[in-house]
Amino acid sequence: MKRLLKILGIVIALTQMCILPTFAQKIVNDSVKINGELRRYKMIIPDNLPDDAPLVMVCHGYGNTGKSKTWMNKAAVRHNFAVCVAQGLKDSKGKHSWNVGYPTQKDWKVDDVSALCKLAAIVQNKYRLSKKNTFLTGMSNGGDLCYLMAHSKQTTFKAFASLAGQLMYPIYENKKVGRPVPFMEIHGTNDKVSRWTGDMENKDGWGEYVPVPLAICRIVDANKCTAISSDTIAVTDTTLNSHIIKYEFSNPRTHNDVWLYKVINAPHCWFEKYINTGEEVWRFFSRYIQ
Q1: Three-state secondary-structure class, residue 218
Q2: Whole-prediction pTM value?
């Protein structure tokens, strides 16, 4: 009996050793000097990632440091793409951030559009990733950067996905969308940081920014989208008093489409309780894989 129990124990132990993690990936801390500044970033690389795999760059919110856990990690393993989590430089308040024109960034000369385009090129070469299939997503301040990128003349990123991002009014007023580019926004109507209705009076101190529908309409117009459809989606957590209204604006000729997810009653967040954020973002990006 004792011998049988011992053998059973060994079998159980071996079985546990053979269980592989569901999401197998390695995390690499790296850095490079760009435009005279040291840029730190993390690479999230799924096991057995093939050469020339797509690259998704992730940009954090204001005051964060670019942690390795993002809304794209699980999707990266499931769909075989690499994630680069970039870290913003410190602004005048000592906060890691992206320079999108907040009042506290008034005299800050950092050009994050140029820096991230250069970083993407470096990462593509160093990790043997696709030069064609490179995308950008960001949350909050990182989402703001997606809007700024869309209003630049960059050609590095093929599509953008903003989470709780905002379009600063000076960008809206002074810059046209650089070129037609696919764009996606997920935004909560109860967001008290990046308000759905905008903040044209700068009551919150982030500077003037336009309402989300107006920001999206600017890109819809630039992309010459001619068709619109909408759908109602149930949220993942049914205990939440919420649902999602998804709007799809499409250009059947160029396919430079715009998707807007209006998350009813959702606060400032990654929306992971409401929807599988990473899967939804990748579903949008993957439409533009070459």
Answers
A1: helix
A2: 0.91
